[in-house]
Design goal:
It is a single chain. With 234 residues, the chain is an alpha/beta fold. It folds into two domains: 3-121, Rossmann fold, CATH 3.40.50; 125-224, Rossmann fold, CATH 3.40.50.2300. The chain is built from ten helices and ten strands. It has helices at residues 3-6, 25-35, 52-56, 81-97, 123-134, 151-160, 178-186, 188-192, 205-214, 222-233, and strands spanning 12-18, 39-43, 66-70, 76-80, 102-106, 120-121, 140-145, 164-170, 195-198, 218-220. Strand 9 (195-198), helix 9 (205-214) and strand 10 form a beta-alpha-beta unit. Helix 2 packs across helix 10 (222-233) and helix 5 packs across helix 10. The longest helix is centred in the middle third of the chain and has 17 residues, at 81-97. The chain is globular and about 50 Å long. It starts with a helix and ends with a helix.
């Protein structure tokens, strides 16, 4: 059956909301490979239209949670999770004006405080539910994160969700990371764990495919989970 036939109500307008700048053609391409042409993708980034000084002003202060993201020119920047939320809300509002019917924040951080006129899909919640729906409590897992500053939080988060965190690996979320693949391949603790969880939206479908070549067990990538969820419910 064609992908278009699986999507009830063709040409749904879905907004992709990067926490950096848009467009993100590589993200849109991943979703188009899952959805076909039956969905119209809109994009608006939280940092769109901001000057370099304004973006620099969002760098995390002492005690603030740090998020990593990318600008339109490919530059990697770090921003405060808490202070980014109003900018995410503005980005969603821009897409609503263009006819968006729902929005997806492209980050696995907690964006439940976000207020919007349309439903907001949170990869954080979908990833947690997807893993819990497949793996029993107490399962040993390896967690991939994009920055060292998130290590303690990630370990605590997945432990609180009932899993035994055997490894937390820091890996570049944008582009190919040969070092990551070698670490996964050669680490007996990772190989013994029951699943790898990519706790960052930057880990893409190609990353999952590369990991699968050296790791034959469950691999959870939020981008793939979100794509299949929308395919099932729209």
């Amino acid at each position: 059956m064609a992908k278009e036939a699986l999507l009830r109500g063709a040409n749904k307008r879905i907004a992709l909301i990067p926490i950096g700048q848009s467009p993100r053609p590589e993200v849109a391409a991943d979703f188009k490979s899952l959805w076909g042409s039956a969905v119209d993708i809109l994009e608006s980034g939280a940092l769109d239209g901001l000057s370099a000084a304004e973006i620099n002003g969002l760098r995390p202060r002492s005690g603030e949670a740090e998020l990593i993201t990318r600008l339109a020119d490919g530059q990697i920047v770090y921003v405060s999770h808490q202070r980014l939320i109003p900018y995410v809300e503005k980005a969603i509002a821009r897409t609503v004006q263009q006819g968006a019917e729902l929005a997806m924040v492209l980050c696995t951080g907690d964006f439940s405080p976000v207020k919007a006129e349309v439903p907001v899909l949170e990869p954080n919640r979908v990833l947690a539910g997807g893993v819990a729906g497949v793996l029993p409590a107490g399962t040993a897992v390896t967690v991939l994160i994009p920055t060292e500053s998130q290590r303690e939080e990630a370990c605590a988060r997945w432990s609180e969700r009932g899993f035994k965190v055997d490894r937390v690996l820091v890996a570049a979320p944008f582009g190919k990371d040969d070092t990551l693949i070698e670490m996964i391949k050669n680490d007996p603790v990772i190989q013994a764990s029951a699943a790898i969880i990519g706790d960052c939206f930057g880990f893409d479908l190609h990353c999952r495919e590369l990991i699968s070549r050296v790791y034959p067990k469950q691999i959870f990538i939020p981008r793939l989970l979100m794509g299949h969820l929308l395919l099932a419910v729209l």
